[in-house]
Amino acid sequence: MAAPPLLSLQNIQLTFGGTQLLEAAELIVSPGQRIALVGRNGSGKSTLLKIAAGMVQQDGGKRFAEPSATIRYLPQEPDLSEFATTLAYVEAGMTSGDDEYRAQYLLEALGLKGTEDPKTLSGGEGRRAALARVLAPQPDVLLLDEPTNHLDLPVIEWLQQELDSMRSAMVIISHDRRFLTDLSRSTVWLDRGLTRRIEKGFGAFEGWRDEVLEQEEKDRHKLDRQIVREEHWLRYGVTARRKRNVGRLERLAGLRQDRRDQRRVTGAVNMQVTEGRTSGALVVEAENISKTYGTRTIVNDFSTRVLRGDRVGLVGPNGAGKTTLIKMLNGLLEPDSGTIKLGSAIELAMLDQGRARLDPETRLKDALTGGGSDTLKINGENKHVVGYMKDFLFTPEQANTPIGKLSGGERARVALARALALPSNVLVLDEPTNDLDLETLDLLEEMVSDYAGTVIVVSHDRDFLDRVATSIIMAEGNGNWLEYAGGYSDMVAQRGAGVSARVVEKAAAAKSKSGNSAVASSSKRKLSFKEKHALETLPKDIAKLDDLMVVINRKLAQPNYYTRDPQGFAKDSAALSEAATKKAKAEEQWLELEMLREEIEGS
After folding, report:
1. How many CB atoms lie within 10 A of CB 356?
2. Highest mean pLDDT range out of 48-57, 254-263, 350-359, 460-469?
3. Which residues pair with 424 in a beta bridge?
4. Structural contact between residues 529 and 183, judged by C-beta atoms closer than 8 angstroms
5. pLDDT of 371-412, one tens digit each?
6. Residue 71 and residue 116 in contact, taking contact as beta carbons nearer than 8 Å
7. Residues forming a β-bridge with 603
8. Phi-psi bin for 356: left (phi > 0), alpha (psi -120 to 50), beta?
């Protein structure tokens, strides 16, 4: 006999802003079950999880929670503001019967000490503290909303092992396919306000989903034919003209209503890259390159060759220097020693992890077009911005919406749309899978696979790397990097292990205790207000300098400018040189601060 459920939601209905988000959603959680909750961005997954946690009141339907069951919910944005330390925050979620030592164990396993002031935590550190809080009581039911967000690979793999060892029932929302596949035993699909369930893990979900949608399409076509048949009878049937059969008229009305009520699947993202001219066969060759900040070596004597068509994945813990290495390989940062040789006709497009250049005040259409126009050029052809927005699942009504008002998933799509609109033959993607739903991830993978140029990708998503990468460059610690053929799983097989936390050199560790190295001592301190402000403003300053350099270059390129105005030409040339110098310094400063931030979050 099956055990009674610990938590159940039945016929849940909820309306937001006049739109029915949930129509008849259900979720049954029995002891020990591990459920993947999946659905598109905006389908209501997080809202359903909040209803399950008792944090949001539904408009209709029933929620039942076993009174004796302990339920813990992991929010996407935890609030630690009321607590003096991270340990106090974690302990506040425990009860008298819980293991008092587990809180400290979990904090240390997640890279925290317990003495941190919550007001100074980064987003990643706050996320780790929230994970410790929900895991510490070993509850009967764990409700986890994107538990791998802001975590690097070592912590993701540790978390997966920790959850696998627990006896708690779990409901997990995650964009990390590998994480869901390894942990889940059942899958609940939230689609157009309704839930469907399969008693198989996420690994079986996508095939099942495609079968369901295919059957829906067949049923819709059958319904369309029935409507045509009934309308034909109504117009031309003798019985209809003479008797006006009420029952049959009602049947036709019912069919038409069914057709109107059917909510079709939301359109798919139409993702395509604006490809530039073909690059040379050699894209980049690095020979014995090294880079050091302070006393810390980021890259030590590394060599590689990237050829046209390669898909190279960079992996490693936070703070390992992935951003620095990728900047050097793209020619945006000079190594301290060694040589970087870039191939011919390189056209670079970048998607940065922080979506740093998305000004929250900029309107959506201006973010895509650059402002001042309603069109943009895609693969050599002009396309109206509204049509391009639709390709990425935005409605025409959102054209004037400020970027800051969009959800995390929508901002991720904007950043992708901007990057893919640029003509390129080298595409650099820094954590491209963040905040994307599974369907959009599928299309991103197809796009990367079909892209005629070269792709360099930084990602913590193991499944994504397995599907797209032809080789993996792995941070081995202390500035050492090795390249492995194949995807992430191939790298693990060759190496014998996955990504582990960055190994700190003993000398650097000793200096961090004495405070002799600002970089090495990053785990001992937090980013200052000035440093945080610089991290936010430097990308905007760099963008302004880019724009200024474009304007000056256009001016200098005018025919006979030097002949007409030699003094003006000299002045503009000096201004261009000054802007280039300022840009280089700003990029160098931003890189150092970004590395420091990564190390603090990863420490």
Report:
1. 18
2. 48-57
3. 275
4. no
5. 778 888 776 678 888 888 887 778 888 888 888 777 667 777
6. no
7. none
8. alpha
Nearest-angstrom CA–CA distance, 179 and 463: 9
Q: What is the pLDDT of residues 480-501, one digit of tens each?
A: 999 988 888 888 888 877 775 4
| Phi and psi based region of residue 380 (left: phi greater than 0; alpha: psi -120 to 50; beta: remaining) | left
Other CB atoms within a 10 A radius of the CB of residue 101 amount to: 9
Q: Does domain 526-603 have CATH number 1.10.287.380?
A: yes
Decide: 66 and 6 in contact? Cβ < 8 Å.
yes
* Residues of each domain in the chain carrying CATH 3.40.50.300: 7-207
Helix or strand (DSSP H, E) at 37: strand 34-38
At position 543, the amino acid (one-letter code) is: A
Please, which residues have CB within 8 angstroms of residue 225's CB and are 6 or more apart in sequence?
none
Where are any strands of DSSP class E within 114-273? 141-145, 169-173, 186-191, 194-198
Q: In angstroms, rounded to a whole number, what is the distance separating the alpha carbons of residues 284 and 306?
A: 5
Greater confidence, 90 or 508? 90
The residue type found at 8 is: S
How far, in Å, CA of 239 to CA of 134, rounded?
68
Phi and psi at residue 527, to the nearest 5°: -65, 135
Angle between helices 566-602 and 322-329 (to 10 degrees): 150
């609940």: which residue's tokens?
188
Tokens standing for 312?
Answer: 């190279």
- Which amino acid type is present at position 553? N
Question: CATH topology for 7-207?
Answer: Rossmann fold (3.40.50)
Q: Please give the biggest Cα pair distance in the chain.
A: 100
Nearest CA among 166, 111, 108 for reference residue 142: 166
The per-residue pLDDT for range 228-257, each reduced to its tens digit, is 666 655 555 544 444 445 555 565 556 555
Taking the C-alpha atoms of residue 279 and residue 286, their distance in angstroms, rounded to an integer, is: 17
With a CB cutoff of 8 Å and minimum separation 6, the contacts of 513 are none
Is pLDDT above 90 for 295?
no
Cβ(38)–Cβ(45) below 8 Å: yes
Cα-Cα-Cα-Cα torsion 485, 490, 496, 501, nearest 10 degrees, comes to 80
Instruction: Find all residues with CB under 8 Å of 101, minimum gap 6, and list them.
Output: none
Cα 468 to chain centroid, rounded? 16
Q: Which amino acid is at 355?
A: R
Residues recorded for the chain: 603
Would you say the pTM of this structure is higher than 0.85? no
Judge contact between 302 and 583, C-beta under 8 A: no
Closest of 157, 101, 96, 159 to residue 127, by C-alpha:
159
Question: Nearest 5°: phi and psi at 171?
Answer: -120, 120
Query: Please, what is the angle between helix 246-261 and helix 205-236, to 10°?
Result: 150
Q: By C-alpha distance, which of 276, 266, 395 is closest to 345?
A: 276
In angstroms, the CA 551 to CA 199 distance is 60
Every domain of the chain with CATH number 1.10.287.380 lies at 526-603
Phi, psi torsion values for 40, nearest 5 degrees = -70, 160
Specify the pairing of strand 480-485 against strand 471-477: antiparallel
Find the helix packing angle between 123-135 and 566-602, rounded to 10°.
20
Q: What is the pLDDT of residue 506?
A: 33
Residue 275 DSSP one-character state: B
3-state secondary structure 248-266: HHHHHHHHHHHHHHCCCCC
